TrEMBL record:
This is Cytochrome c oxidase polypeptide 4. One of its GO terms (molecular function) is cytochrome-c oxidase activity. Its EC number is 7.1.1.9. GO terms for biological process: electron transport chain. It is a multi-pass membrane protein. The chain crosses the membrane at residues 7-25, 31-51, 105-124. It catalyses: 4 Fe(II)-[cytochrome c] + O2 + 8 H(+)(in) = 4 Fe(III)-[cytochrome c] + 2 H2O + 4 H(+)(out).
Length: 133
């Protein structure tokens, strides 16, 4: 994680002078551009510091070592539910939500309601049914 951390930190440092130069070039009149670049710089620095902190705490991964073998990175990578339909429902709700921003608020409200139902269904998926714990 050392390389990823320094990549994000250097990107964050890079965008600070770029935003300042851009601000001078537009006479600080176009507020969206330089503010977005300052925010981008802050986000890059935040991610870089978090990844560096996590990398220092966790230690070197097999991907970080040159002498690592492929089998060292094997094993359980997380828990996924291959039979779940809730991510699809949530994606449809998000599509309705973004379409609602362009078409009308009633479509957005329909998407927001569907998103709440999808999130509750996804969170409580393992609380009931055939795969309950």
């Amino acid at each position: 994680m050392k390389i990823e951390a320094w990549l994000f930190i250097l990107l964050g440092i890079f965008f600070i002078p770029v935003a300042t130069v851009y601000g001078f070039m537009v006479n600080w009149g176009e507020h969206v551009g330089f503010l977005a670049m300052y925010l981008l710089s802050g986000l890059c620095l935040m991610i870089g510091v978090y990844v560096k902190f996590t990398g220092d705490r966790v230690g070197a991964r097999p991907e970080d070592r040159l002498d690592a073998e492929v089998h060292e990175g094997s094993g359980e990578q997380g828990h996924f539910s291959p039979w779940s339909w809730w991510p699809l429902v949530l994606a449809i709700a998000c599509a309705f939500g973004f379409a609602g921003l362009a078409v009308g608020w009633w479509v957005f409200l329909f998407g927001a309601g569907l998103a709440v139902i999808a999130l509750v269904g996804w969170v409580y998926e393992y609380s009931r049914g055939d795969h309950a714990h």
